[in-house]
Amino acid sequence: MLEAQAHQQIKSLLRREESSWPHHLTLSRLVGRSLRRRDTTLVQLPPSSGERWWLGLLVPLCLAPNAGALVLTAQQRRRLLRLESPRLRKQGLRLPCWQGSTAPKGNQLWLLSVAELIDAHRQEQLGERQLLIPEMDQLSVRMREQLSIRIENHHWDELRHACPHAESALLELHDRMSRQLFMRATRTDACMRMEGAASQSLRDLLRLMDDCPSPWRDIVQIDPSQWAEWAELDHKLLHWSWNLAPLEPLDLVGDLLQSHPSLMLSSNGDNGRLELEFRQAAIRPDVRASLRERELNEPLPLYAPRRQPLPNTKIYSKHLLEESRRLILGQAGLTIILINDQQLRLQLTSSLAAEFGRRVVEATTAPDSNGVVTCDWNWWLVHQCELPEPDQIIVGLLPIASLDNPLTAARVERLKQQGEDWFRDLLLPEALCLIPSAIAPLRRSGGRLAVLDGRLRGRSWGDEVLQRLEPWIPLQRLLPN
Question: Is 462 within 8 Å of 400 (Cβ atoms)?
Fold first, then answer.
């Protein structure tokens, strides 16, 4: 059987290489089983696993390379071709890989980006191949990025030149949309949801044109009820860009995961957001497996005083500064401060830098050994592997998405129309899925976590956040190091 052969190959390989990750053999057997049975399998990896899944995924594919289409980011593809594939060749294993927009005709593993995956599905080129998706929890976000449409000023010029008979109507519509957007803006460089009849009038006009250039022809084909639309304003130049993004990308390519067997890896543990996406797209994994690590069983020291102010109060910024100062004092290692609100983050960074000097930086991968790095959650999740393990992480704001974001507001509005609990079905699960990976470096370093967001103790859903942090032990007061 494929899984038994892969198991023996990895055992032989691990005798020559040292690895502290205990799940190589288990993962290889799960991958081999899924490839042999051609089923849909979801494997939940530990949040601290990083990209240590390569060996368990690739060894079974060396034995059956024509069975799969592997969906990778550009960085992951470089790692596969420059590091992992030569590493396997040294051990006598070969993995023939095919790169291109058309399906390979030989016995090769097809490497696809998310954009190439969407095109291959639409052109029905995937055939009987099984989809291999190493970061399933990021697939929806990456699909949205690829499917999104952005209209800049030069696109309006191209449309007018391509359709000179409609030039006056286009100029009038663009002028009307510009006036509406800048009149509604409450601050400079705002992001405004596209509302009103002007955008619909533009769509009606585009449908009458047979020779629209790209990306205008894409706008005609979309269903506005399934897309979010917003404008990014530039008050200095009085320009604006029109952005369109699908609310739920898996709905637009809904039969992609239904019509093909899939092996999906997720590193966020019990991911409520992923379950919601599965339910909406009618995806039902045949096999579910969850891998755990010992380091996740070590209690995490948690400093989260009761009766902290809520983020929407006037005293919150002062509270955040005072508590951050106390937490930073005496720390010999790296401190990470996580805040998604850009204005609040910049204000805190400036105030801390006035006291602690150049050791305080924003979103930098080369801090001092006792540096303080302020950043948003997504930046930290992407770049944490480039930084030393922190001594502490300070959560200034829990990563609950703001309704000021036009895309979030549009997704919430859709759930309201469907009668769903938009907070517990969308905003809370998306926040919870970020937490395990964000705090995983603390469990390895033995550092402490501080949550200064008063909602943790002041809202009923704060208990779900505490459950996601398990196991933890409370720090009632700060002690000098």
Answer: no
